[in-house]
């Protein structure tokens, strides 16, 4: 008889890429994970993985079974969560990834209130600006800012995001204030390295326009980009949720070149093929209510 823990064990191995990694994720010994896999393969009458000394890869039968197995595991987890919700509570583990700066500046208050209302949820939040493979790395969902580039993710919008071209008054006094897209090429830029080289995208009538001024600094963190702009290093294209306070205080100035940066989105995304759990839908509702329409950081 095929057991549910064997199926969930198989899904964890497929997502983690190895028995050792799956064992760490499941908080089980490597031998237990190996035994469960062997039992499942025996019950199914087919090997699910090609085994080499260096890695595991799915067999043709394993690939076919994985899609159904994923659905089974998530349906059971969702059913458990739905029963908890019917009793007036949400429960169980939830693992999220969010960008460092957005998480530090804006997620905390909403998450703390959400967890206080649902004390049976055990949340693991990891702040990381790198690109995340949500399914392979075992995340229930990722919170991201930008455009949805991974077709394997289903995005649930949280709020529109405005990116603003900003600089310090000192920098503009020294270097002049650009007034057009062409003027930008005479200035120095502070770039976010986790995006591609065409990050500076501006809306036009027709195709978007890409501009690439010389770099003063390349860095993979929004806080440091803002601080570099405050230090007068150059122009930065940053979300309003990062620089709203500095713009209100006058320590940074918005630079108007007659074009808006291309619109973007703050969203929660979960792996394709998995329904958004009741826990995740409740969290999205709480985050939307906290952020507001328009977002509170854009209301001066």
Description:
The protein has 300 residues and is of the alpha/beta class. The chain contains nine helices and 14 strands. The chain has helices at residues 4-16, 19-26, 30-44, 60-86, 100-117, 169-175, 222-230, 240-249, 278-291, and strands spanning 49-51, 56-58, 92-98, 121-127, 141-146, 153-161, 163-167, 189-192, 201-202, 209-210, 215-219, 235-239, 253-254, 264-271. The strands form four sheets. Strands 4-3-5-14-6 form a five-stranded mixed beta sheet. Helix 5 crosses helix 9. It is elongated, with a radius of gyration of 23 Å. The mean pLDDT is 87.
Summed up, what is this model?
By secondary structure, the protein is of the alpha/beta class.
As a whole number of angstroms, the C-alpha radius of gyration is 23 Å
| Total count of strands | 14
Number of helices: 9
Largest sheet: 5 strands, mixed
User: Mean pLDDT, nearest integer?
Assistant: 87
Sequence of secondary-structure elements: HHHEEHEHEEEEHEEEEHEHEEH
Widest sheet: strand ordering? 4-3-5-14-6
Sum up the overall morphology in one term. elongated
Please mark out the parts with pLDDT under 50 across 5 or more consecutive residues, or reply none.
none
Intertermini distance:
62 Å
């Amino acid at each position: 008889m095929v057991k549910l823990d064997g199926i969930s064990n198989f899904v964890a191995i497929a997502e983690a890429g190895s028995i050792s990694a799956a064992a760490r994720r499941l908080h089980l010994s490597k031998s237990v994970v190996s035994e469960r896999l062997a039992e499942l393969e025996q019950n199914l009458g087919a090997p699910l993985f090609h085994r080499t000394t260096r890695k595991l890869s799915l067999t043709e039968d394993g690939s076919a079974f994985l899609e159904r197995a994923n659905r089974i595991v998530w349906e059971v987890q969702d059913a458990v969560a739905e029963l908890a919700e019917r009793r007036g509570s949400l429960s169980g583990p939830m693992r999220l990834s969010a960008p460092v700066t957005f998480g530090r500046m804006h997620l905390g208050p909403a998450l703390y209130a959400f967890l206080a209302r649902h004390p049976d949820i055990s949340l693991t939040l990891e702040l990381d600006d790198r690109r995340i493979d949500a399914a392979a790395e075992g995340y229930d969902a990722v919170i991201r800012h930008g455009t949805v580039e991974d077709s394997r993710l289903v995005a649930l919008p949280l709020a529109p995001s405005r990116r603003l071209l900003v600089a310090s008054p000192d920098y503009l006094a020294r270097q002049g204030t650009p007034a057009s897209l062409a003027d930008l090429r005479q200035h120095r830029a502070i770039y976010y390295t986790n995006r591609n080289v065409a990050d500076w995208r501006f809306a036009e009538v027709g195709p978007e326009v890409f501009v690439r001024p010389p770099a003063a600094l390349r860095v993979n963190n929004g806080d440091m980009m803002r601080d570099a702009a405050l230090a007068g290093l150059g122009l930065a294209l940053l979300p309003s949720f990062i620089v709203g306070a500095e713009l209100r205080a006058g320590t940074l100035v918005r630079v108007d070149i007659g074009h808006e940066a291309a619109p973007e989105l703050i969203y929660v995304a979960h792996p394709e093929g998995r329904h958004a759990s009741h826990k995740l839908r409740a969290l999205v509702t709480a985050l939307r209510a906290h952020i507001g329409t328009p977002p509170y950081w854009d209301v001066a």
